[in-house]
Amino acid sequence: MWRASRLLLLHYSRPGPDRPGAFEEFFVAQAIRFHRPGGPEVMQWESVEVGTPGTGQVRLRHVAVGLNFADTYFRSGLYPAALPAGMGVEAAGVVEAVGPGVSVFKEGDRVTYTGSPLGAYSTQRVMPAASLIKLPDGIPFETAAAMTMRGLTSAYLLRRIATLIPGDTVLLHAAAGGVGLIFTQWAKLLGINVIGTVSTEEKAEVARQYGCTHTIVYPREDVAARVRELTDGAGVPVVYDSIGATTFQQSLNSVKRRGLLVCFGTASGPIPPIDAMQLAIKGSVFVTRPALADYIADPRERAELAGELFGHVESGRIKIEINQRYALEDAVQAHRDLEAGRSIGSSVFHL
């Protein structure tokens, strides 16, 4: 398999009124890009030039890349992207060069990241140093690529969104997914009981192995009715819903009086418009639509959440389940598998 990430090109910049002529270094990398929104087939495997990092930037060599459902939102056009665009928001790798003004990182540092700008589906790239998180030596690159977005999502859902106490019971959709398995283990460490929804009995077994107190196989069970049964009719104080359109009503029907519905994903499509009066009728419930970016925008808060996550993973208290591995050039198949619900746990691209 050909890799071009180490191919160096020299381009000559003609002199201008305020600069002398000079040779500039460019590396040739391979990347997945898309030129129009659509299905998985719009993604293409292309050669791209990677230049010298500018002020506040670094050049990275990726070792592993994360596959997240959010990637499909950009590809499909649900989330806006300036086209043509790269794909992906999560990867782990090694710093190969640093630009002016970068003091926190140096060449050879192991790092991970999640968030904009798009372009993680690549062998090499230049990006802002402020987006990077130092990766402890005890966490492999593949593990980091499988958990940075999912782990930080679990962190803010459990540590920032609502005040939960030991003994509380919550409802979590997609409990056997990448976020689901991390969230469930973390909740168990906090003494929180999790009712997890899954699509198959196989996934239910996996979710229980990772700490789900109860599982609901939603194709054959009424989720809200089962939640009420498990909570003596009260419902749960918090519902965590990453599915969106197809689960919103069941989620709303599962929240207890003055409880909270957290809509943090739209795997089945956007949630419907909210009728404020229905929130009163359902018991004065609250609804929020959070985004990870707003919980890691502050560097100190991001470091705190990442530190807690890394500590749990390094100690083995939280295990990262990687069940799907793909070559980066096989992104089309990876997206098809992800959207068809064939994934359990996390998925990564290896380079």
Automatic annotation (TrEMBL):
InterPro entries from the xrefs? Answer: ADH-like_C, ADH-like_N, ER, GroES-like_sf, NAD(P)-bd_dom_sf, QOR-like, Quin_OxRdtase/zeta-crystal_CS
One Gene Ontology term, aspect cellular component: cytosol
* Originating species: Rhizocola hellebori
The chain positions of domain Enoyl reductase (ER) read 38-349
Q: From the Swiss-Prot or TrEMBL record, give the protein name.
A: Putative quinone oxidoreductase
Q: Which UniProt keywords apply?
A: NADP, Oxidoreductase
NCBIfam families cross-referenced by the UniProt entry: PRK10754.1
GO terms for MF = mRNA 3'-UTR AU-rich region binding; NADPH binding; quinone reductase (NADPH) activity; zinc ion binding
One Pfam match: ADH_N
